[in-house]
Amino acid sequence: MRAEDAAGASAPRTPAPLTSAPPAPALPRSTDAVLAAGTALGFLADLLLADPRRGHPVAAFGRAATAAERLLWRDHRGAGALYTALCAGGTVAAAAGLSHAVRRSPAASGALTAAVTWAVLGGTSLGREARAVGAALEAGDLAGARERLPGLCGRDPQSLDAQQIARAVVESVAENTSDAVVGALVWGAAAGVPGLAGFRAVNTLDAMAGHKSPRLRRFGWAPARLDDVAGFPGSRLTAALAVLAGPDPRGALRVLRSDARRHPSPNAGPVEAAFAGALGVRLGGTLAYGGRVEHRPVLGPGNRPVEPRDIERAVRLSRRVGALALVVCAGGRLAYGALRGGTTAVSRPPAGPRTARPASGRRRAAGEGRG
């Protein structure tokens, strides 16, 4: 070994100082951005196109669920639980499989999210049906209003007068703002396409089998209870947004606090109470479902009775609530993605000029390698 090589090998090398760059601003993960964009596109599609008149996926699910009910029905809660698990669980599994299949393509994933969002939302069709009943009432066509009412709710229309029909429409708009719009958006933000499809499946099963009729009292227990759980977050968000977006926030908050718990439904109660207070009308009271008469507590007892003109006001409030829910849910998902990315990001040192090893060191290593 030459002297200069030995001197170079023995001389200590000072490592280059390492400096850490400030972490880059956290950006939402691509999946969160794709989900938010797809949800917004699906919301816009429902706003512009409403529900398809033929080949609606929810209608196809309803036919499949009807066939499953005929096959599995027993006068027992266990049979209803099996029916619910197969129908709702199968829907979630199918949606999860589709999401997994397109996960590597942002375009395909966004298109799937938009399509499913459009399929499960029903805000525009809800408003159209409500306005059609309201127009019939405004024109004095009570028979026409009675004919169209079953498209909104399951009440017996033949015994209802104009004021009672108007009240039924406003109550249906309030409840379905949660069930057909906000609840789906909440579950979509939380669980993506499986959340969207699963929520709609559970809500549809409750509408089909979650009744207290003698035949479904036990069999329909499982879908009704599952719908109560699934609808809880959406109903609370709907009530809160109705307070904020309504023409009388103080009145809405007052009725929500005083009367929501009196309603027999844990989810319809807050929503209908908030709408009653926001619109300054009185909801609840006696109603008839499938031959059964129910006497429900009055929501907003100090307010005036519902009038046909209040239907339009309820639809407009529903539209505002739906738009705000989209902002909250899509924005919340983006914010969650940004926070999650910020907490898991690893700071790397900036790329800079590398410190070259001494030439003597390189020659020494080469010489040692040759032996």
Short account of what is shown:
The protein is mainly alpha-helical and 371 residues long. The chain is built from 13 helices and three strands, in the order H-H-H-H-H-H-H-H-H-H-H-E-E-E-H-H. The protein has one domain.
Write the layout of secondary structure elements.
Blueprint: H1 3-10, H2 30-49, H3 57-72, H4 77-101, H5 106-120, H6 123-138, H7 142-148, H8 162-209, H9 221-245, H10 249-259, H11 268-279, E1 281-289, E2 292-299, E3 304-305, H12 309-344, H13 359-370
Helix pairs in contact: 1-13, 2-5, 2-12, 3-4, 3-8, 4-8, 5-8, 6-7, 6-8, 6-12, 8-9, 8-11, 8-12, 9-10, 9-11, 9-12, 10-11
What report would you give on this structure?
It comes from Streptomyces xinghaiensis. One of its GO terms (cellular component) is plasma membrane. Belongs to the CobD/CbiB family. The chain is mainly α. The protein has one domain. 68% of the residues lie in helices and 5% in strands. It is built from 13 helices and three strands; from the N terminus they run αααααααααααβββαα. A three-stranded mixed β-sheet has the order 2-1-3. Strand 1 and strand 2 form a beta hairpin. Helix 9 runs antiparallel to helix 10 and helix 9 runs parallel beside helix 11. 41% of the residues are buried. The N terminus and C terminus are likely disordered.
